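Submission sheet (multi-component)
Chains listed below:
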Amino acid sequence: MRGAAERFRGGAQPFREGAPRVVVAGATGFAGALAAQLLWRHPGFELFAVTGRSDTGRPLEALYPRYRVPLEVEELEASRLEGVDAAIVAYPHAAAAPTVAVLRELGMRVVDLSADFRLASLATYERWYGPHPRPELLDEAVYGLTELHRAQIVGAAIVANPGCYPTAAVLGLAPLARAGLLGDVVVYAKQGISGAGRAFDETTHLSFAGENILPYKVAEHRHTPEIEEQLALLGADLPVQFQAHLVPVDQGELASCYVTPTRAIAAGELAELYREAYRDEPFVEVAPAPPGTREVFATNFCRIYAAADEHTGKVVVLSAIDNLWKGTSSQAVQNLNVMYSLPETEGLL
Amino acid sequence: MRGAAERFRGGAQPFREGAPRVVVAGATGFAGALAAQLLWRHPGFELFAVTGRSDTGRPLEALYPRYRVPLEVEELEASRLEGVDAAIVAYPHAAAAPTVAVLRELGMRVVDLSADFRLASLATYERWYGPHPRPELLDEAVYGLTELHRAQIVGAAIVANPGCYPTAAVLGLAPLARAGLLGDVVVYAKQGISGAGRAFDETTHLSFAGENILPYKVAEHRHTPEIEEQLALLGADLPVQFQAHLVPVDQGELASCYVTPTRAIAAGELAELYREAYRDEPFVEVAPAPPGTREVFATNFCRIYAAADEHTGKVVVLSAIDNLWKGTSSQAVQNLNVMYSLPETEGLL
Amino acid sequence: MRGAAERFRGGAQPFREGAPRVVVAGATGFAGALAAQLLWRHPGFELFAVTGRSDTGRPLEALYPRYRVPLEVEELEASRLEGVDAAIVAYPHAAAAPTVAVLRELGMRVVDLSADFRLASLATYERWYGPHPRPELLDEAVYGLTELHRAQIVGAAIVANPGCYPTAAVLGLAPLARAGLLGDVVVYAKQGISGAGRAFDETTHLSFAGENILPYKVAEHRHTPEIEEQLALLGADLPVQFQAHLVPVDQGELASCYVTPTRAIAAGELAELYREAYRDEPFVEVAPAPPGTREVFATNFCRIYAAADEHTGKVVVLSAIDNLWKGTSSQAVQNLNVMYSLPETEGLL
Amino acid sequence: MRGAAERFRGGAQPFREGAPRVVVAGATGFAGALAAQLLWRHPGFELFAVTGRSDTGRPLEALYPRYRVPLEVEELEASRLEGVDAAIVAYPHAAAAPTVAVLRELGMRVVDLSADFRLASLATYERWYGPHPRPELLDEAVYGLTELHRAQIVGAAIVANPGCYPTAAVLGLAPLARAGLLGDVVVYAKQGISGAGRAFDETTHLSFAGENILPYKVAEHRHTPEIEEQLALLGADLPVQFQAHLVPVDQGELASCYVTPTRAIAAGELAELYREAYRDEPFVEVAPAPPGTREVFATNFCRIYAAADEHTGKVVVLSAIDNLWKGTSSQAVQNLNVMYSLPETEGLL
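Outcome: structure written.
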């Protein structure tokens, strides 16, 4: 298919002999389209096909001219998937699980971008999302926050790519959680408009979203249980106050976390805790100053800054990512790299 | 002077016979320029002169073409101020107080936009700002959050116009503070770039500020003591965790407040508390949904939404203003209206 | 209806005794909503009702929280229109004319925002838009570029509010056209996203429209014949090269016109020509420097700058408006003011 | 130096054995900083040092946290340059030439980003810029619009990197110029704020530049003679009407060119002309639709669309680049690739 495509121009890197073949299912949305672009330039994978439920027959680069992926959007059909090793699935929750099930039956490994396999607790899932379409697959799934679950991701059949807010918040809070320092937690997150995806409505219209700071989903955001479950795994089992806001940037997300620590912690100890935690992580940067999201724009980096507030005794943690990259698509590729034992940074720097 | 000016065009309203004469000192900055424009169109005041320490001799509308105020910027000289009733002073802190002192000696009433007269406690002022240049004037000053101190503003010689963050935060938290419900408080504020004023640096350059979410002044923002002092006056004497962020809007500010209440509070009681508190306020709107800052852009309104989070037991209060209007210049005019017993909304709707 | 409405808050001015009653038909789109807001605050008109084909029963301020118009959206029904004097009709072309016909039968005067009555030549209309639904009404219509056709607007039954691009371009070029100086003309226009209206698509999505400069409708824009017809009326019958671009602002439009003059013209003569042409116009500002659209944001002003280029012999005219205000809704109110012999600037400064 | 640097984190690629050593002089401005980042990741060059006249001793990534170049800014000293092969010089015009002279004496090859060596005609240079500081070097310089002068760039001692507007305009117009089809030409260009560089003033302040469309340098832009000289080389010796505008994007530039052709040209012939002209160019894309600048954001691509307007007989050419990449820094790297016979796309895809 790649050979057959009338390329518009530029961009693609040749892949290595024997590179695993990957399909992106749901490539017409923001997350899938970016995943396709990253794989199209990745020397370690062959992007075999892009599928979608709309726009079939159109080259992906006609939908997203900035991505220069000339493959035509196809319907997802099992017959086309022979010899395909893996998939990134970019469907909405509830729609994703049945598709993942089909791909698993074909023996493919999957990175799923939806919420369907993120929560270990079925009860929690069903409280927030309704009945789970394929609960029997939950056992095959590993939570794909790469930095926390790398060892299990290597051999995983299904990797549940984290939500963007949990990615920023959990990476920001993990060192405190592991150290037993997490008391009360408030997470204030601000995100760019791309977080709303390709939805065309008042959330994304520039005449509404521009010159606006908009809080949304007050006291009911579905990313809350995901953050809580991950912090609990690290030893901090507590309710998290989470609030999201939209601001007029395209790609960018900042989780500002205020923590009442379980004991007083000095600035030096705090700094050391974070330095140690992420010393060897290629994509987590412990920053010397509060990070702006622009610093991580269009990258897989998470940049974190922690400070102790002497006035209130609280600890402030600021964690910046690109919601569409580390928060979604580039983390999916990072997970694929780990699953296939490629260098973790390949195709992402 | 108004008659002598070569008007560029349009915009000015004729003022009423006998209207108080007002000068804007420091009209070349954002706050002063907007105050000048508001007064220029206000039927109840005569904008007599605009002064500045730079750009003297240039019409203000050459500096701010969008404001259409043709008065030329002058140096501030006592000899020119005979017969002038009042001033809005838009100088940086420490520079403001000596100027206010001069104007007071001339018998003028002053709305001061700096921090110099906002804090009742001299000790607190000096801890955050250094030595106070005119502490003897503190007794003449009233804190100008109009909705909370209207009665004292009527006769005040000096009105200390609040900081923009305290305006949004204190209006948002006042009903809870008065009701004795304020336990732990975290205030997360996001503001547009105009909050940095006419400063030309990396904070305001579109190539840095655009596509960015930037936390700043972590654990050290000078608006913290102002919020704390006002809440204490309302009965809630506690440290406030405050954090500010810059986002790429021009004018807009949202204070997102998370409160651990001193007792459980139900949604209905919370709604009633806010409705009651602001029932008669012309410029505070208790909103039925989380407010975006765009809803209050270029207005003197503060729009507030309060919600109880059953999951965590916390109360969320979202308070939106235009940092340059209600947060600064239009609130100064609102205060002038009150000081001169004009209709409080005149010139502001 | 106004009395019955549960007002959210603030904003409305009481109107004068005997003020004409006006309806806005199609108030749920950008143009209609802004027209409604302008009338809601206008002391010289009573905004009697707002109608729409969707969202009936919802207060307009629920759709546009920034406008604070509490009237509920109704269906347009003749029975409700007794005693209503005039209407602003904000429908798409072809849909507008039949509605205008109904309102005319009820004896109402109409400002129509669509293209249906802008072109005097039926043949030209049908070449660009297809069959005209009510060609018999064309004779009743006056082209509503207020500055050029004021005398006819006073008594008009139908005022065809100009397109936003023609407003900027024709005001910019009229002095040259009248003076017989227009040779070859190229108009390059750039507009904010609000020009696309409430359409939710890739044109308006911040993740597409942000950080983008997008030319559109190359060599086929429907505003071309409107500009040509108006220039011909002024004595310059020639084809106009017109090209539009979208840029990431909300409201703002700049027509940059390059003219090969029919004879050499010196800078002084050019300046005098423009000064003279607009000396008495309250809403046209001949500017001393190239105008940015921000200078006319949210105003009814058109700001024009003309320069002679010695290098090429061409004349450059830059004409800035707010596409949603002078380009659409505030010009409609300006026309209503003229139609009802109110001060032309009332409700617009 | 690279080894000695305390890297902040991530990003750098190891360079090949024997890779030419390159210095970026003037790395603290936008153009130099991006050139440094591109070279830091380029496998075919060793970025040996970054120099600046301010901020010496600070890591470049402290000034530009998004670029992750840990080298400290140094003063430019001849003693440090032994064994260095080449330089990218990012100084203002007139300051650049003397520095280039020094580097040439050391035997280094130079890509100069200023205007000092762009104009072949000394007389033209001096009319627009004043006395030339090193006219004797003009003979060593080649104009670095890679696609037009590739053959001479290979062996050049000095490559004069083009201005951003000439890059877009000349690539857009070259096929017509070569074919003898260029009659009258108007170039309307719109550019993002990064084009103003790291200047901190009203041009770049978000509160002025946001929500604005601002024409500037009317009838006097210095890029005009550069465009004219290049078109003359291609056979079209004529004055060009050029006008620039700033719009609120960061990086992006669109040259919209209106051409009165010397003879009628049909759509098919026009399409063929452009397809042929750029068939083998890796970085010029002849697009099937009008290109938005977002499509070339942060790339070295130039995307061009040409159309014949039947109504006026004119030809419209739309040419989009990223002003900071293809318009400046990435084109400098493209030229370095050509100078050192590396694959032209290396480090740029």
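Remark: Confidence is low (pLDDT under 50) at residues 1-10 of chain B.
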